[in-house]
């Protein structure tokens, strides 16, 4: 199941459960609004990871890992939560922690003001506390409720940030206010870059020369990664 873009920017996605399994999906963007239904970036679309701009972007893994994955997401996207909770830990355990893969985080924030606020705070956390970025990101997705369900505004993000050890939430908040325009420019650049690759859905990843859109099964990502090693 996917979410596609329509005219209602606040249409809430519905996850369909069949035989106890949540169908992999994606929230889609056409430069205007999100909505439900349709397809994301063309599965198997050909690109090249070497064309992705990674300088200054948050990442986890060895900077010199043989394989780089670029990953576009939105903190309000329910399918990103599904991907990060169910699939990401498997990729990290098998490929990131072993030094084979570096994952670069790219922004495709399009699900309203809370998406942008979260993206701005993510940039501040990365700039000030790069070693704590991943725990903060994990906590953000664990706390995510339904789109625009309440979590994700500035107050809730600050409250969550205060719970992450090794991060001074006051300094993060100060950085977001001082550098808001700079961070928003970074978000816009990632969004434009996604469009240049034909990416219009979250989650979407580029592995080598392939775009994989949606919260696909782990085996899909495993096969794509193995082909690069």
Give a verbal description of the structure.
The chain has 229 residues and is of the alpha+beta class. It has a single domain, classed as 3-Layer(aba) Sandwich (Glutaredoxin), CATH 3.40.30.10. The chain is 39% helix and 14% strand. The protein has helices at 78-86, 88-96, 113-128, 133-143, 154-161, 169-178, 180-196, 218-226, and strands at residues 17-18, 21-22, 27-28, 59-60, 67-73, 101-107, 201-202, 204-207, 210-213. Strands 4-6-5-8-9 form a five-stranded mixed β-sheet. The protein has a two-stranded antiparallel ribbon with strand order 1-2. The chain has a two-stranded antiparallel sheet with strand order 3-7. It is globular, with a radius of gyration of 16 Å. The relative contact order is 0.21. The model is unreliable at 1-24 and 29-42 (pLDDT under 50).
Mean pLDDT: 83
Helix content: 25-40%
Q: How widely separated are the two ends?
A: 30 Å
Overall morphology = globular
Task: Please name the CATH architecture.
Answer: 3-Layer(aba) Sandwich
Q: Count of DSSP helices?
A: 8
Count of the separate structural domains? 1
Q: What is the C-alpha radius of gyration, as a whole number of Å?
A: 16 Å
Strand arrangement, major sheet = 4-6-5-8-9
The first-level CATH class is given as Alpha Beta
Instruction: Give the CATH H-level superfamily.
Output: Glutaredoxin
How are helices and strands ordered from N to C? EEEEEHHEHHHHHEEEH
- The computed structural class is alpha+beta
